Amino acid sequence: MSIGQGTLRVTLAHPHLTRVYRTSTPRLSIDGVDQLVRSWGIHTVAVAAGPHRVEVRVVHRNGEPFGQAEASAVVELGGQTVVEYRAPRFRRHGRIMIVRPVSPP
C-alpha cells in the first residue's frame, strides 16, 4: 500500500441455492472504474484515502445485468473499509452494506 492509500475489502456473495449464479459473474466498479473480478468471494482493492462510490452488478451469460447496488464508502488513510454485497434471490436489486471502517494500528 502506498502513502495516501487504504483498502476496500469487498465480499461478493449470492444465495447458495439459486441456479442463476452458476452462469453469472459479479462486476465490481469503484468510482466508475471496473475492477478485475472474475469470481464470487472476497476481493481487496487498494484505493486512495477518502470517499468512494462502490457499485456491483451481476451479469448473466446472456449479457443482461441484474442485481445492481451502489453505496458510498469512506476509506481512512492506511485503513481498510469492509464492504459486503449480497445478490438478490430473484432478479431484483442487490444490497451493499458498509460493515465497518477499520482504522490503521
Short descriptors:
105 residues, mainly beta, Immunoglobulin-like, 4-stranded mixed β-sheet, 4-stranded antiparallel β-sheet, 8 strands
Describe this structure in words.
There is one protein chain. The chain is mainly β and 105 residues long. The protein has a single domain, classed as Sandwich (Immunoglobulin-like). 0% of the residues lie in helices and 60% in strands. It has strands at residues 5-13, 24-30, 33-34, 41-48, 50-60, 65-75, 80-86, 95-102. The strands form two sheets. It has a four-stranded mixed β-sheet, with no helix packed on it. Strands 3-2-5-6 form a four-stranded antiparallel β-sheet, with no helix packed on it. A hairpin with a 4-residue loop joins strand 5 and strand 6. The model has no long low-confidence stretch (mean pLDDT 89).
**CATH domain topology:** Immunoglobulin-like
Q: Write down the CATH class.
A: Mainly Beta
**Unreliable stretches covering 5 or more consecutive residues:** none
Total helical elements:
0
Assign the structural class, choosing from mainly alpha, mainly beta, alpha/beta, alpha+beta, or little secondary structure: mainly beta
Shape: elongated
The number of domains is 1
String of helices and strands: EEEEEEEE
Strand content: over 45%
Mean of all residue-level pLDDT scores: 89
Radius of gyration: 14 Å
Taking the sheet with the most strands, its summary is: 4 strands, mixed
Order of the strands making up the biggest sheet: 4-1-7-8
* Cα separation of the termini: 14 Å
Summarize the amount of helix as a percent range. under 10%
CATH architecture heading: Sandwich
